[in-house]
Amino acid sequence: MVPHYYYGLHRSLKPTHVFPQPAWTLNPSLPIHPSELLIDVEALHIDSASFAQLKQETNNSLDLLTEKIGQIVQERGKMHNPITGSGGMLIGMIKQVGDQFIDQSIRAGQKIASLVSLTLTPLSLSNIHHIDLTTGQINVDGYAILFSSSPFAVLPDDMDQHVALAVLDVCGAPAQAARLVEANQVVVVLGAGGKSGLLTLAEVSRKVGDNGLVIAVEQNMDLCDQIENLGLAHHVCCADATDPVAVLEKVSSLTDGKLADITFNCVNVPGTELSSIVATKEEGIVYLFSMAVQFTAAALGAEGIGKDVQLMIGNGYAPGHANHTIELLRNTPQLLEFFTKKYGS
Ligand code: NAP
Question: Where exactly are the structural domains of the chain?
């Protein structure tokens, strides 16, 4: 297939001839190209960094939030937050499969979750029904278009679809944790009480084994209690991840000054780069999953304190990441129960 259609460059409107993610505006008009997939969208899951920013901007007003989200989608042809640069993902039912779409095993009527960011997914909304201020999930009427290059997953039939939507949005984090973490390591997870944080904890606690150490850092007291109850970390520190001194003191005292082999940053607010770096030992890995992380703050933060750590940008994609995460959840019943209570319909 011509790369232009495979990657969806034909949908970029402003400017033209660029990939759809960096394009300011996409053209979501119908009909679909034969290389595309058309989806009747049921719900969007707004990326946590984006949702936190939008809630702050609109002062948690549902009316203003509805207006703002409608306006972004109308103007950009995609749900691409211009401030945070992040998107989220969607669930919906396949309406039409283009006859050149790369995966011809998929059929109209199947329910799927897109595993590609809303920042590059052509989207048109006719109605926003309901916004859940706690979870960032939005029930909508509208349609979206996937390119042949866009990963997606058929929704599992043994799980509430809103739970699947919540966890699939962040499924890159536990999948990457499975690749990076080794037995006996010390691992710190910042923002440990959120979706990606809890899934990462579940993965990491399996991987480090009996002689490893898992330290969860979360600022919200209730979530700290929840993490304790879920039994997914050896230590839970109630600390502010934007305060590097507090994080360093806690991690240092829990590890006798050795610090972490790997730190996962799963926080949804800015200003946590330095905490991730100071929590990690020399030549350790800092995995920056958070979309609120800034390259300059991370790079200059490490340089500024003379710390030789490997700074990794959290790639949201890893082969098999969706299945891996759904399986992880099935095998961690207490976490599945927690997610079902929090995100289930
Ligand atoms: P989430 O469910 O909202 O979790 C974020 C957690 O961080 C929450 O428990 C939050 O607590 C906690 N937190 C907030 N401020 C904190 C602070 N100062 N100190 C310690 N903890 C703090 O978010 P998520 O969906 O897991 O996403 C996490 C991050 O990953 C976001 O930035 C999101 O944009 C990003 N993301 C990245 C990718 C990728 O491909 N790399 C994909 C999806 C999402 P409260 O609830 O009390 O605020």
Answer: 4-155, 172-338
Tokens of 6: 């495979």
Residue of 200, 268, 291, 335 to mutate, ligand 1, most atoms within 8 A of C-beta: 268
At a CB cut-off of 8 Å and minimum separation 6, what does 126 contact?
A: 141, 142
Residue 29 Cα distances to 16, 75, 107, angstroms = 15, 13, 22
Confidence of residue 3 (pLDDT cuts 50, 70, 90): confident
Is residue 269 lining ligand 1, measured as CB closer than 6 Å?
A: yes
Using only C-alpha atoms, the chain has a radius of gyration, in whole angstroms, of: 20
Short-list 182, 186, 174, 178, CA closest to 261 = 186
pLDDT digits (tens, 9 = 90+) for 145-172: 999 999 999 999 889 999 998 999 899 9
The finding on whether 266 has its CB within 6 A of some atom of ligand 1 is yes
Residue whose CA is closest, atom 9 of ligand 1? 194
Residue whose tokens read 């799963």: 266
Q: 190 C-alpha to center of ligand 1: Å? A: 9
For the cut 90, the answer to whether the pLDDT of residue 345 exceeds it is no
Share of the chain above pLDDT 90, in %: 96
Q: Domain 172-338 adopts which CATH fold?
A: Rossmann fold (3.40.50)
SS3 of 103-140: the string is: CCCCCCCCEEEECCCHHHCCEEEEEEEEECCCCCEEEE
- Tokens representing 69? 């989200």
CA 67 to chain centre: 24
Sign of CA dihedral 258, 277, 290, 223: positive
Quick one: average pLDDT of 205-218? 96
Whose Cα sits closest to atom 35 in ligand 1? 290
- Cα of 13 vs centre of ligand 1, distance in Å, is 32
Report the separation in Å between the CA atom of 41 and the middle of ligand 1, taken as the mean of its atom positions: 25
At 237, give phi and psi (nearest 5°): -105, 120
The response to whether residue 77 sits with its C-beta less than 6 Å from ligand 1 reads no
